[in-house]
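User: Could you walk me through two proteins back to back? I'd like the raw sequence and the C-alpha coordinates for each, with a short line separating them so I can tell where one ends and the next begins.

Assistant: Of course. Protein one, sequence then structure:
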Amino acid sequence: MKNSILLCLALAGALFGTNPIITTMYTADPSGHVWADGRFWLYPSHDRNDAQWWDMTDWHVFSSDDLVTWTDHGACLSLSDIPFAKSAAWAPDCAYRNGTYYFYFPVSSVSSNSNTDRIGVATSSNPYGPFTVVPTPLVSGEGAFDPCVFIDDDGQAYLYCGQNTAYVGKLKPSMTELDGPLQPIGGADGFFEGIWLHKRNGIYYLSYSMNGNIGYGMGTSPLGPFVYKGIVLTWTGTTTIHSSIVEYRGDWLMFYHNQALAGGNMFKRSVCADYLHYNSDGTMRQVVQTKAGIVAQPVPSRSRIRPNIRSKQSSTRKKDILRHASAHVTVFNICGTVVRKQSAEPQSATNLHSIPPGRYCVRVEERNRHDDAPVPVSPR
Protein backbone atom coordinates (compact mmCIF):
# COMPACT_ATOMS: atom_id res chain seq x y z
CA MET A 1 0.00 0.00 0.00
CA LYS A 2 2.85 2.36 0.80
CA ASN A 3 4.28 1.96 -2.70
CA SER A 4 0.95 2.69 -4.37
CA ILE A 5 0.53 5.86 -2.31
CA LEU A 6 3.98 7.14 -3.26
CA LEU A 7 3.31 6.39 -6.94
CA CYS A 8 0.03 8.22 -6.74
CA LEU A 9 1.65 11.27 -5.18
CA ALA A 10 4.43 11.38 -7.72
CA LEU A 11 2.15 11.10 -10.72
CA ALA A 12 -0.38 13.57 -9.38
CA GLY A 13 2.40 15.98 -8.49
CA ALA A 14 3.55 15.90 -12.09
CA LEU A 15 0.21 17.39 -13.09
CA PHE A 16 1.09 20.67 -11.47
CA GLY A 17 3.26 23.51 -12.68
CA THR A 18 5.17 25.81 -10.40
CA ASN A 19 4.68 29.49 -9.69
CA PRO A 20 6.22 31.58 -11.13
CA ILE A 21 5.33 29.99 -14.49
CA ILE A 22 8.02 31.82 -16.50
CA THR A 23 11.47 31.20 -15.01
CA THR A 24 13.83 32.01 -17.89
CA MET A 25 13.45 35.78 -17.54
CA TYR A 26 11.67 38.40 -15.47
CA THR A 27 8.13 39.07 -16.71
CA ALA A 28 5.11 41.05 -15.53
CA ASP A 29 1.71 42.42 -16.55
CA PRO A 30 0.46 39.19 -18.19
CA SER A 31 -2.30 39.30 -20.80
CA GLY A 32 -3.62 35.81 -21.53
CA HIS A 33 -5.46 34.66 -24.64
CA VAL A 34 -6.67 31.47 -26.29
CA TRP A 35 -6.54 31.53 -30.08
CA ALA A 36 -7.92 29.09 -32.67
CA ASP A 37 -4.91 26.76 -32.40
CA GLY A 38 -6.03 25.77 -28.88
CA ARG A 39 -2.77 26.85 -27.25
CA PHE A 40 -2.66 29.37 -24.44
CA TRP A 41 -0.83 32.54 -25.45
CA LEU A 42 0.72 34.95 -22.97
CA TYR A 43 1.71 38.53 -23.72
CA PRO A 44 3.59 39.98 -20.72
CA SER A 45 6.01 42.85 -20.29
CA HIS A 46 9.71 41.95 -19.97
CA ASP A 47 11.76 43.24 -17.03
CA ARG A 48 15.47 43.48 -17.79
CA ASN A 49 17.99 41.46 -15.76
CA ASP A 50 19.82 44.64 -14.70
CA ALA A 51 16.69 46.76 -14.27
CA GLN A 52 16.96 49.78 -11.96
CA TRP A 53 13.50 51.07 -12.84
CA TRP A 54 10.63 49.94 -15.04
CA ASP A 55 12.91 50.57 -17.99
CA MET A 56 11.71 47.75 -20.24
CA THR A 57 12.74 47.78 -23.91
CA ASP A 58 10.90 44.89 -25.61
CA TRP A 59 8.10 42.34 -25.36
CA HIS A 60 8.33 38.54 -25.55
CA VAL A 61 5.49 36.13 -26.40
CA PHE A 62 5.00 32.79 -24.64
CA SER A 63 2.67 29.89 -25.37
CA SER A 64 1.74 26.56 -23.82
CA ASP A 65 -0.56 23.63 -24.53
CA ASP A 66 -0.64 22.45 -20.91
CA LEU A 67 -0.01 25.62 -18.81
CA VAL A 68 3.10 24.01 -17.32
CA THR A 69 5.63 23.87 -20.16
CA TRP A 70 6.02 27.28 -21.79
CA THR A 71 7.66 28.19 -25.11
CA ASP A 72 9.39 31.56 -25.42
CA HIS A 73 8.84 32.72 -29.00
CA GLY A 74 11.34 35.53 -28.57
CA ALA A 75 10.91 39.28 -28.78
CA CYS A 76 7.90 40.17 -30.89
CA LEU A 77 8.52 43.93 -30.78
CA SER A 78 11.13 46.35 -29.42
CA LEU A 79 11.24 50.07 -28.72
CA SER A 80 13.67 50.45 -31.61
CA ASP A 81 10.85 49.29 -33.95
CA ILE A 82 8.48 52.07 -32.87
CA PRO A 83 8.96 55.54 -34.39
CA PHE A 84 7.10 57.39 -31.62
CA ALA A 85 8.66 55.53 -28.66
CA LYS A 86 11.73 56.30 -26.59
CA SER A 87 11.15 54.29 -23.38
CA ALA A 88 8.72 52.34 -21.18
CA ALA A 89 7.76 49.14 -23.03
CA TRP A 90 5.08 48.47 -20.45
CA ALA A 91 1.94 46.30 -20.12
CA PRO A 92 0.65 45.10 -23.53
CA ASP A 93 -2.35 43.21 -24.86
CA CYS A 94 -3.24 41.36 -28.06
CA ALA A 95 -6.41 40.72 -30.07
CA TYR A 96 -7.29 38.68 -33.17
CA ARG A 97 -9.63 39.48 -36.04
CA ASN A 98 -9.98 38.20 -39.62
CA GLY A 99 -6.59 36.52 -39.85
CA THR A 100 -4.60 39.32 -38.21
CA TYR A 101 -3.17 39.60 -34.70
CA TYR A 102 -3.17 43.10 -33.23
CA PHE A 103 -0.59 43.87 -30.56
CA TYR A 104 -1.44 46.87 -28.36
CA PHE A 105 1.37 48.47 -26.40
CA PRO A 106 1.96 51.53 -24.21
CA VAL A 107 5.19 53.53 -24.55
CA SER A 108 6.65 56.87 -23.58
CA SER A 109 7.77 59.52 -26.04
CA VAL A 110 10.19 60.77 -23.37
CA SER A 111 13.60 59.16 -23.03
CA SER A 112 13.71 58.17 -19.34
CA ASN A 113 11.71 57.42 -16.18
CA SER A 114 8.36 58.64 -17.46
CA ASN A 115 4.87 57.18 -17.55
CA THR A 116 3.59 56.05 -20.90
CA ASP A 117 1.90 58.69 -23.05
CA ARG A 118 1.17 56.73 -26.22
CA ILE A 119 -0.71 53.53 -27.04
CA GLY A 120 0.32 51.99 -30.32
CA VAL A 121 -0.82 49.07 -32.44
CA ALA A 122 1.24 46.56 -34.41
CA THR A 123 -0.01 43.77 -36.67
CA SER A 124 1.10 40.28 -37.66
CA SER A 125 -0.25 37.17 -39.36
CA ASN A 126 1.24 35.09 -36.50
CA PRO A 127 0.39 35.23 -32.78
CA TYR A 128 4.10 35.47 -31.92
CA GLY A 129 4.95 38.13 -34.49
CA PRO A 130 7.08 39.73 -35.68
CA PHE A 131 4.70 42.66 -35.51
CA THR A 132 4.69 45.67 -37.83
CA VAL A 133 3.90 48.99 -36.16
CA VAL A 134 1.08 51.21 -37.40
CA PRO A 135 2.87 54.59 -37.77
CA THR A 136 0.22 56.66 -35.97
CA PRO A 137 -0.47 56.03 -32.26
CA LEU A 138 -3.95 54.83 -31.34
CA VAL A 139 -4.05 57.03 -28.21
CA SER A 140 -1.86 59.99 -27.25
CA GLY A 141 -1.82 61.83 -23.93
CA GLU A 142 -4.56 61.25 -21.36
CA GLY A 143 -5.51 57.60 -20.97
CA ALA A 144 -2.49 56.21 -22.86
CA PHE A 145 -1.71 53.58 -20.24
CA ASP A 146 -2.18 49.78 -19.85
CA PRO A 147 -4.32 48.91 -22.90
CA CYS A 148 -6.78 46.03 -22.86
CA VAL A 149 -8.84 45.06 -25.90
CA PHE A 150 -12.09 43.11 -25.65
CA ILE A 151 -14.15 41.87 -28.61
CA ASP A 152 -17.78 41.20 -27.71
CA ASP A 153 -19.98 38.44 -29.11
CA ASP A 154 -21.48 40.84 -31.67
CA GLY A 155 -18.01 41.58 -33.07
CA GLN A 156 -17.66 45.08 -31.60
CA ALA A 157 -14.17 45.68 -30.21
CA TYR A 158 -13.45 47.95 -27.24
CA LEU A 159 -10.28 49.52 -25.88
CA TYR A 160 -9.88 49.88 -22.12
CA CYS A 161 -7.01 51.91 -20.70
CA GLY A 162 -5.92 54.58 -18.24
CA GLN A 163 -4.21 55.40 -14.98
CA ASN A 164 -6.17 56.90 -12.05
CA THR A 165 -9.12 57.29 -14.43
CA ALA A 166 -10.46 54.24 -16.32
CA TYR A 167 -11.42 54.83 -19.96
CA VAL A 168 -13.24 52.85 -22.63
CA GLY A 169 -13.71 53.48 -26.33
CA LYS A 170 -15.08 51.60 -29.31
CA LEU A 171 -12.62 50.48 -31.97
CA LYS A 172 -13.36 50.69 -35.68
CA PRO A 173 -13.36 47.40 -37.66
CA SER A 174 -9.77 48.16 -38.67
CA MET A 175 -8.80 47.64 -34.99
CA THR A 176 -6.26 50.45 -35.38
CA GLU A 177 -8.53 53.48 -34.88
CA LEU A 178 -10.97 54.63 -32.24
CA ASP A 179 -14.59 55.08 -33.24
CA GLY A 180 -15.11 58.23 -31.20
CA PRO A 181 -13.37 59.63 -28.11
CA LEU A 182 -12.48 57.67 -24.99
CA GLN A 183 -15.06 57.94 -22.21
CA PRO A 184 -14.58 57.57 -18.43
CA ILE A 185 -15.99 54.31 -17.07
CA GLY A 186 -18.63 54.62 -14.37
CA GLY A 187 -18.34 52.46 -11.26
CA ALA A 188 -14.60 51.71 -11.43
CA ASP A 189 -14.27 52.47 -7.73
CA GLY A 190 -10.70 52.92 -6.51
CA PHE A 191 -9.24 52.42 -9.99
CA PHE A 192 -5.49 52.93 -10.38
CA GLU A 193 -4.26 50.98 -13.43
CA GLY A 194 -3.95 47.47 -14.93
CA ILE A 195 -7.44 47.29 -16.42
CA TRP A 196 -8.95 44.03 -17.76
CA LEU A 197 -12.40 43.16 -19.13
CA HIS A 198 -13.85 39.67 -19.46
CA LYS A 199 -17.35 38.28 -19.94
CA ARG A 200 -19.05 35.28 -18.38
CA ASN A 201 -22.70 34.19 -18.68
CA GLY A 202 -23.70 37.54 -20.17
CA ILE A 203 -22.09 39.56 -17.37
CA TYR A 204 -19.13 41.91 -17.93
CA TYR A 205 -16.37 41.96 -15.32
CA LEU A 206 -14.04 44.94 -15.05
CA SER A 207 -10.95 44.17 -12.94
CA TYR A 208 -8.07 46.50 -12.12
CA SER A 209 -5.30 47.46 -9.73
CA MET A 210 -6.33 49.38 -6.63
CA ASN A 211 -4.36 49.99 -3.43
CA GLY A 212 -2.02 47.07 -4.11
CA ASN A 213 -4.90 44.65 -4.76
CA ILE A 214 -7.02 43.63 -7.74
CA GLY A 215 -10.58 44.85 -7.34
CA TYR A 216 -13.49 44.34 -9.69
CA GLY A 217 -16.97 45.39 -10.68
CA MET A 218 -19.79 43.75 -12.61
CA GLY A 219 -22.05 45.23 -15.27
CA THR A 220 -24.50 44.49 -18.05
CA SER A 221 -22.73 46.53 -20.74
CA PRO A 222 -19.10 46.60 -21.89
CA LEU A 223 -19.29 50.40 -21.67
CA GLY A 224 -20.40 50.31 -18.05
CA PRO A 225 -21.42 51.44 -15.58
CA PHE A 226 -20.08 48.75 -13.27
CA VAL A 227 -20.99 47.95 -9.68
CA TYR A 228 -17.97 47.45 -7.46
CA LYS A 229 -17.94 44.00 -5.83
CA GLY A 230 -14.69 43.80 -3.87
CA ILE A 231 -11.16 42.38 -3.98
CA VAL A 232 -10.43 39.30 -6.10
CA LEU A 233 -6.63 39.23 -5.58
CA THR A 234 -4.73 40.59 -2.60
CA TRP A 235 -1.22 42.05 -2.48
CA THR A 236 1.31 39.81 -4.23
CA GLY A 237 4.41 41.11 -2.49
CA THR A 238 5.57 43.71 -4.99
CA THR A 239 4.80 47.38 -5.55
CA THR A 240 2.77 46.89 -8.74
CA ILE A 241 -0.07 44.51 -9.52
CA HIS A 242 -1.59 43.63 -12.89
CA SER A 243 -3.71 40.66 -13.91
CA SER A 244 -5.77 39.01 -16.62
CA ILE A 245 -8.66 36.55 -16.27
CA VAL A 246 -9.14 33.87 -18.92
CA GLU A 247 -11.13 30.65 -19.36
CA TYR A 248 -9.11 27.70 -20.66
CA ARG A 249 -10.50 24.20 -21.18
CA GLY A 250 -13.32 24.73 -18.72
CA ASP A 251 -11.28 26.37 -15.94
CA TRP A 252 -11.16 30.06 -15.10
CA LEU A 253 -7.64 31.28 -14.40
CA MET A 254 -6.03 34.44 -13.12
CA PHE A 255 -2.60 35.47 -14.34
CA TYR A 256 -0.69 38.01 -12.26
CA HIS A 257 2.85 38.85 -11.17
CA ASN A 258 4.89 38.90 -7.99
CA GLN A 259 8.65 39.12 -7.41
CA ALA A 260 9.27 35.56 -6.22
CA LEU A 261 11.73 34.50 -8.93
CA ALA A 262 15.33 34.33 -7.67
CA GLY A 263 16.91 37.78 -7.71
CA GLY A 264 13.54 39.46 -8.07
CA ASN A 265 12.51 42.87 -6.79
CA MET A 266 9.98 45.56 -7.66
CA PHE A 267 11.67 46.07 -11.04
CA LYS A 268 12.30 42.37 -11.73
CA ARG A 269 8.98 40.59 -11.46
CA SER A 270 7.61 37.14 -12.31
CA VAL A 271 4.33 35.95 -13.82
CA CYS A 272 2.18 33.43 -11.92
CA ALA A 273 -1.18 31.72 -12.47
CA ASP A 274 -3.85 30.32 -10.16
CA TYR A 275 -7.46 29.19 -10.33
CA LEU A 276 -10.38 31.59 -10.07
CA HIS A 277 -13.83 30.48 -8.90
CA TYR A 278 -17.28 32.07 -9.02
CA ASN A 279 -20.13 32.09 -6.53
CA SER A 280 -23.63 31.10 -7.58
CA ASP A 281 -24.59 34.79 -7.91
CA GLY A 282 -21.75 35.38 -10.38
CA THR A 283 -19.43 37.20 -8.01
CA MET A 284 -15.80 36.10 -7.97
CA ARG A 285 -14.15 34.42 -5.01
CA GLN A 286 -10.81 35.73 -3.87
CA VAL A 287 -7.96 33.98 -5.68
CA VAL A 288 -5.54 32.06 -3.48
CA GLN A 289 -1.90 32.50 -4.46
CA THR A 290 -0.11 29.14 -4.50
CA LYS A 291 3.26 27.62 -5.27
CA ALA A 292 1.64 24.75 -7.18
CA GLY A 293 -0.19 26.86 -9.75
CA ILE A 294 -2.26 25.18 -12.46
CA VAL A 295 -2.95 21.50 -13.18
CA ALA A 296 -1.40 20.55 -16.51
CA GLN A 297 -3.51 19.38 -19.43
CA PRO A 298 -2.78 16.94 -20.94
CA VAL A 299 -1.13 14.80 -18.26
CA PRO A 300 2.67 15.25 -18.50
CA SER A 301 4.88 12.28 -19.38
CA ARG A 302 7.08 10.54 -16.81
CA SER A 303 10.09 12.51 -18.04
CA ARG A 304 8.55 15.65 -16.59
CA ILE A 305 7.82 14.29 -13.11
CA ARG A 306 9.48 16.62 -10.64
CA PRO A 307 11.29 15.50 -7.46
CA ASN A 308 10.54 16.74 -3.95
CA ILE A 309 6.78 16.66 -4.39
CA ARG A 310 5.02 18.13 -1.37
CA SER A 311 1.54 17.08 -0.29
CA LYS A 312 -0.35 19.04 -2.93
CA GLN A 313 -2.63 16.03 -3.17
CA SER A 314 -3.22 13.15 -0.83
CA SER A 315 -4.05 9.52 -1.55
CA THR A 316 -7.46 8.68 -0.18
CA ARG A 317 -10.46 6.34 -0.39
CA LYS A 318 -13.81 7.31 -1.86
CA LYS A 319 -15.42 7.64 1.59
CA ASP A 320 -12.81 10.23 2.55
CA ILE A 321 -13.30 12.18 -0.66
CA LEU A 322 -16.98 12.61 0.18
CA ARG A 323 -16.02 14.65 3.25
CA HIS A 324 -15.15 17.52 0.91
CA ALA A 325 -18.66 18.16 -0.42
CA SER A 326 -18.37 21.92 0.31
CA ALA A 327 -15.00 22.40 -1.40
CA HIS A 328 -13.50 22.58 -4.87
CA VAL A 329 -12.21 19.06 -5.44
CA THR A 330 -10.14 17.56 -8.26
CA VAL A 331 -9.86 13.77 -8.10
CA PHE A 332 -7.13 11.81 -9.92
CA ASN A 333 -6.79 8.08 -10.43
CA ILE A 334 -3.47 6.35 -9.76
CA CYS A 335 -2.33 7.10 -13.32
CA GLY A 336 -2.77 10.82 -12.76
CA THR A 337 -5.88 11.18 -14.91
CA VAL A 338 -8.57 13.59 -13.73
CA VAL A 339 -11.66 11.47 -13.02
CA ARG A 340 -13.90 14.05 -11.35
CA LYS A 341 -14.04 17.79 -10.69
CA GLN A 342 -16.47 19.44 -8.31
CA SER A 343 -17.22 23.06 -7.51
CA ALA A 344 -17.92 24.25 -3.98
CA GLU A 345 -21.67 24.45 -4.48
CA PRO A 346 -23.70 22.04 -2.33
CA GLN A 347 -25.71 20.79 -5.30
CA SER A 348 -22.55 19.42 -6.92
CA ALA A 349 -21.78 16.97 -4.08
CA THR A 350 -23.48 14.14 -5.97
CA ASN A 351 -20.66 14.42 -8.49
CA LEU A 352 -18.31 12.84 -5.95
CA HIS A 353 -20.77 10.07 -5.05
CA SER A 354 -20.60 8.83 -8.63
CA ILE A 355 -16.90 7.93 -8.37
CA PRO A 356 -16.35 4.14 -8.56
CA PRO A 357 -14.89 2.47 -5.44
CA GLY A 358 -11.09 2.56 -5.22
CA ARG A 359 -8.08 4.65 -4.22
CA TYR A 360 -7.56 8.12 -5.63
CA CYS A 361 -5.53 11.29 -5.28
CA VAL A 362 -7.48 14.39 -4.35
CA ARG A 363 -6.68 18.09 -4.53
CA VAL A 364 -8.89 20.18 -2.25
CA GLU A 365 -9.50 23.92 -2.36
CA GLU A 366 -11.67 25.00 0.55
CA ARG A 367 -13.77 28.14 0.27
CA ASN A 368 -11.31 30.27 2.24
CA ARG A 369 -8.05 28.40 1.96
CA HIS A 370 -5.97 26.14 -0.24
CA ASP A 371 -3.94 23.08 0.71
CA ASP A 372 -0.83 24.73 -0.73
CA ALA A 373 0.94 27.46 1.22
CA PRO A 374 0.87 31.04 -0.14
CA VAL A 375 3.75 32.17 -2.32
CA PRO A 376 6.55 33.47 -0.05
CA VAL A 377 7.45 36.94 -1.23
CA SER A 378 9.39 39.72 0.41
CA PRO A 379 8.01 43.20 0.98
CA ARG A 380 9.69 46.16 -0.67
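----
Protein two, same layout:
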Amino acid sequence: MDTFVPFPNFKDTAKALRHDDAINSLRAALKIMEIKHEYGNVDTHATLARHPMVEMWGEAIPHLCEYAFALIEAIPEERTGALNLAKIERAVQFHLSCATSGEYRMDPPRWLGDEMFHAAQRSALMRLRPLHYGAMWPTEDMSIPQYWPTC
Protein backbone atom coordinates (compact mmCIF):
# COMPACT_ATOMS: atom_id res chain seq x y z
CA MET A 1 0.00 0.00 0.00
CA ASP A 2 1.58 3.24 -1.15
CA THR A 3 0.62 6.61 -2.56
CA PHE A 4 3.59 7.64 -4.63
CA VAL A 5 4.09 11.42 -4.84
CA PRO A 6 7.34 11.99 -6.78
CA PHE A 7 6.45 15.65 -7.48
CA PRO A 8 4.71 18.37 -5.46
CA ASN A 9 2.13 18.85 -8.24
CA PHE A 10 -0.40 16.01 -8.22
CA LYS A 11 -1.08 16.21 -11.97
CA ASP A 12 2.67 15.93 -12.69
CA THR A 13 2.81 12.98 -10.31
CA ALA A 14 -0.12 11.24 -11.99
CA LYS A 15 1.40 11.71 -15.45
CA ALA A 16 4.77 10.34 -14.29
CA LEU A 17 3.42 7.12 -12.76
CA ARG A 18 3.08 3.95 -14.79
CA HIS A 19 -0.59 3.12 -15.16
CA ASP A 20 -0.40 0.11 -12.84
CA ASP A 21 1.38 2.20 -10.19
CA ALA A 22 -1.23 4.95 -10.60
CA ILE A 23 -4.01 2.38 -10.14
CA ASN A 24 -2.35 0.97 -7.01
CA SER A 25 -1.84 4.49 -5.64
CA LEU A 26 -5.50 5.27 -6.33
CA ARG A 27 -6.58 2.14 -4.45
CA ALA A 28 -4.33 3.12 -1.53
CA ALA A 29 -5.71 6.69 -1.52
CA LEU A 30 -9.27 5.37 -1.41
CA LYS A 31 -8.33 3.01 1.44
CA ILE A 32 -6.88 5.94 3.42
CA MET A 33 -10.09 7.91 2.89
CA GLU A 34 -12.15 4.95 4.12
CA ILE A 35 -9.93 4.62 7.19
CA LYS A 36 -10.18 8.32 8.00
CA HIS A 37 -13.95 8.33 7.62
CA GLU A 38 -14.42 4.92 9.30
CA TYR A 39 -16.15 3.62 6.19
CA GLY A 40 -16.05 -0.03 5.15
CA ASN A 41 -14.31 -2.78 7.13
CA VAL A 42 -13.54 -1.05 10.43
CA ASP A 43 -11.72 -4.11 11.88
CA THR A 44 -9.13 -3.98 9.10
CA HIS A 45 -8.87 -0.20 9.47
CA ALA A 46 -7.72 -0.45 13.08
CA THR A 47 -4.49 -2.10 11.93
CA LEU A 48 -4.00 -0.01 8.80
CA ALA A 49 -4.67 3.26 10.63
CA ARG A 50 -1.21 2.98 12.19
CA HIS A 51 0.52 2.58 8.80
CA PRO A 52 3.00 5.43 8.21
CA MET A 53 1.32 6.31 4.91
CA VAL A 54 -2.02 6.87 6.66
CA GLU A 55 -0.29 9.01 9.27
CA MET A 56 1.61 10.84 6.51
CA TRP A 57 -1.62 12.09 4.93
CA GLY A 58 -2.92 12.92 8.41
CA GLU A 59 -5.94 15.17 8.27
CA ALA A 60 -5.11 16.50 4.77
CA ILE A 61 -7.93 14.48 3.20
CA PRO A 62 -9.01 17.26 0.79
CA HIS A 63 -5.51 17.09 -0.71
CA LEU A 64 -5.65 13.30 -0.83
CA CYS A 65 -8.90 13.66 -2.80
CA GLU A 66 -7.17 16.11 -5.17
CA TYR A 67 -4.40 13.52 -5.61
CA ALA A 68 -7.00 10.81 -6.34
CA PHE A 69 -8.77 12.99 -8.92
CA ALA A 70 -5.43 13.61 -10.69
CA LEU A 71 -4.80 9.86 -10.80
CA ILE A 72 -8.29 9.15 -12.15
CA GLU A 73 -7.75 11.72 -14.89
CA ALA A 74 -4.38 10.19 -15.88
CA ILE A 75 -5.43 6.52 -16.00
CA PRO A 76 -6.62 5.54 -19.49
CA GLU A 77 -10.02 3.84 -19.44
CA GLU A 78 -8.70 0.85 -21.42
CA ARG A 79 -6.04 0.19 -18.72
CA THR A 80 -8.42 -0.10 -15.78
CA GLY A 81 -9.49 -3.74 -16.19
CA ALA A 82 -12.15 -4.49 -13.58
CA LEU A 83 -11.59 -1.10 -11.92
CA ASN A 84 -14.62 1.18 -12.31
CA LEU A 85 -13.18 4.71 -12.44
CA ALA A 86 -16.61 6.37 -12.46
CA LYS A 87 -17.58 4.54 -9.26
CA ILE A 88 -14.25 5.45 -7.64
CA GLU A 89 -14.65 9.06 -8.71
CA ARG A 90 -18.06 9.16 -6.99
CA ALA A 91 -16.50 7.63 -3.85
CA VAL A 92 -13.72 10.24 -3.85
CA GLN A 93 -16.34 12.98 -4.30
CA PHE A 94 -18.20 11.56 -1.28
CA HIS A 95 -15.01 11.60 0.81
CA LEU A 96 -14.22 15.14 -0.36
CA SER A 97 -17.65 16.31 0.78
CA CYS A 98 -17.02 14.67 4.17
CA ALA A 99 -13.54 16.16 4.38
CA THR A 100 -14.65 19.70 3.60
CA SER A 101 -17.32 19.64 6.30
CA GLY A 102 -14.88 21.30 8.68
CA GLU A 103 -13.14 18.47 10.52
CA TYR A 104 -10.08 18.18 8.26
CA ARG A 105 -7.23 20.54 7.45
CA MET A 106 -7.53 22.59 4.29
CA ASP A 107 -3.85 23.51 4.24
CA PRO A 108 -1.56 21.13 2.35
CA PRO A 109 0.37 18.42 4.19
CA ARG A 110 3.70 19.75 5.44
CA TRP A 111 5.71 17.32 3.30
CA LEU A 112 4.19 18.53 0.02
CA GLY A 113 6.99 20.44 -1.70
CA ASP A 114 9.71 18.99 0.57
CA GLU A 115 12.36 17.98 -1.98
CA MET A 116 13.82 15.33 0.35
CA PHE A 117 10.41 13.63 0.47
CA HIS A 118 9.82 13.81 -3.30
CA ALA A 119 13.38 12.58 -4.05
CA ALA A 120 12.79 9.62 -1.70
CA GLN A 121 9.54 8.89 -3.54
CA ARG A 122 11.32 8.93 -6.93
CA SER A 123 14.03 6.70 -5.48
CA ALA A 124 11.42 4.21 -4.21
CA LEU A 125 9.80 4.12 -7.64
CA MET A 126 13.19 3.55 -9.27
CA ARG A 127 13.83 0.59 -6.96
CA LEU A 128 10.36 -0.75 -7.72
CA ARG A 129 10.72 -0.53 -11.51
CA PRO A 130 14.34 0.35 -12.36
CA LEU A 131 13.97 0.03 -16.12
CA HIS A 132 10.95 2.28 -16.35
CA TYR A 133 11.66 4.95 -13.74
CA GLY A 134 15.45 4.73 -14.09
CA ALA A 135 15.07 5.78 -17.73
CA MET A 136 12.67 8.56 -16.71
CA TRP A 137 15.01 9.97 -14.04
CA PRO A 138 18.54 8.90 -15.07
CA THR A 139 20.31 11.39 -12.77
CA GLU A 140 18.31 10.53 -9.63
CA ASP A 141 19.90 8.62 -6.76
CA MET A 142 18.00 5.37 -6.28
CA SER A 143 19.57 4.66 -2.89
CA ILE A 144 17.65 7.32 -0.95
CA PRO A 145 15.85 5.47 1.87
CA GLN A 146 12.07 5.51 2.29
CA TYR A 147 10.97 8.65 4.09
CA TRP A 148 7.63 8.72 5.91
CA PRO A 149 6.90 12.24 7.14
CA THR A 150 4.02 11.96 9.57
CA CYS A 151 1.79 14.97 10.08
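The chain has one domain: 10-136.

Let me know if you want the two compared in more detail.
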